[in-house]
Every structure is written in structure tokens, then in C-alpha cells.
Amino acid sequence: MYSGELEVQAKRKALAVLQDESSKLVNAGRSLVMAYNTILNNDTNGIHASIERIKSIEEEIENLRRKITMDIYEIGSLMVNREELLKTIYLMDEIAGHMSGIAFRLSVLRADIFKGIDKEVQSLLDLVLDEVFKLNEMARALSMNPMAVLEISPSVERLEKQIDDKYRALVVKVLSNLSDPKDLILLKDVLDGVEGMADKCLEASDRMTILALNM
């Protein structure tokens, strides 16, 4: 098999992995929102079930990343855009790690801590899930219509800006509402995790945009 055909096959496989990762991230994002709702309902079993689902998805994404890394390594420098592809695939892994960390931090919080801010935290999580949905759309577009990625990417930027604004407003409110330092630190960690995840989603969007422009 000649090198050009190997490159095409490797790129096709890498894009398929990227799409698979993004689909799994959507499922993990749904589980993260579900974890938050189970906490508000004091559903201990539901909390643990959601966390386990997210951890399982994180492991699946990590395994996909390891396998495609080896496949691309075997092709070597013959593959164009291999660094951008790998960086995007690794970012998906990082986003899954953020979700797992957020879910764990949520699990140690009591429902009453969210009194007065429960809807705002829900809105923040919904926005970051919307970001993940957009990444999934972009990953699909890379395989079928790369130029569609350029149409989707601005919406990711808008969502990240909304998340940033809501995060800042929530931090101010949390500092005013909570007096217990332990509760304050734990809740701030959750909000920081969501904001950090949103940044990673935007970074992944930028990477996919670069990939689309080079296809």
C-alpha cells in the first residue's frame, strides 16, 4: 500500500475517533447535568451512578486517544495536519477529565449549599453542555463538510462568553451567600471546573477550525 493511501486511511480513522470522542462527551455532559439534579434531590444512589458513567466514558475516551496516537505515530511525518489532529483528540480527553473532576466535587456538596443559586448553577451547566453539543456538530462536519465548521465555531465563542459572564456573577453571589469557608472553597472549585471546561471547549473549537481550513 503506498504512503498516500496510508495517510488517507489514518486521517479518516483519526476523524472517526474525534467524532466518537465528541459523541461520548455529549453523553458524559448529560450525566454531569443529571448528577447535579440528583444532588438537589438528595439521591445518593443517583449521584454515584452518574459519577460512574462519567468515569467510564472518560476511560473510553482515553483508550481511543491512546490507540489513535499509536496509529498516527506509525504513519509518521507522512501525515499532513497530524499535530493538529492529535492536539484536538487530546483536548477531548482533557474535557472528559474536567467533567469527571466537576462531578466528583459536586458529589461532596450538600443540596442546601445551592439554595438561592440552584437555577443559576443549572443554567451554567446547561450552557457548557450546549458547548459540548456544538463540538460534536463540528467533529461530524469535519468528515462530511469541513466548511460547516466555520459556521458553527462562532456559536461556541458566544457560549464561552456567556459562561464566563455567568461564572463571574455566580462567584460574586457565592462569596456573599456562603459564610462557611469549606463550603465556599468546594463550591468555588465546582464553578472553576465548569469555567475551565468551557475554555477547553473553545480551544477544541479553535483546533477544529484550523483543521477545517487545512482540508
Question: In short, what is this structure?
Answer:
Helix content is 87%, strand content 0%.
Write up what this structure looks like.
This protein has one domain: Phosphate transport system protein phou homolog 2, domain 2 (Methane Monooxygenase Hydroxylase, Chain G, domain 1, Up-down Bundle), CATH 1.20.58. With 215 residues, the chain is an all-alpha fold. Helix content is 87%, strand content 0%. The protein has six helices and no strands. It starts with a helix and ends with a helix. The chain is elongated and about 60 Å long.
Looking at this protein, list some descriptive labels.
elongated; Methane Monooxygenase Hydroxylase, Chain G, domain 1; 87% helix; mainly alpha
Which helices and strands, and how do they pair?
Elements: H1 3-40, H2 44-75, H3 82-107, H4 118-144, H5 147-177, H6 181-213
CATH architecture: Up-down Bundle
List unreliable stretches of 5+ residues. Answer: none
Bin the helical content. Answer: over 70%
Overall pLDDT level: 88
SS-derived structural category: mainly alpha
Task: Characterize the biggest β-sheet.
Answer: none
Distance between the termini: 23 Å
User: What overall geometry do the principal axes of the alpha carbons give?
Assistant: elongated
Might you state the CATH topology name?
Methane Monooxygenase Hydroxylase, Chain G, domain 1
Multimeric state = single chain
Percentage beta strand: under 5%
Task: State the name of the first-level CATH class.
Answer: Mainly Alpha
H and E order = HHHHHH
Number of DSSP helices?
6
The CATH homologous superfamily corresponds to Phosphate transport system protein phou homolog 2, domain 2
Task: List how many beta strands DSSP finds.
Answer: 0
When the domains are counted, the total is: 1
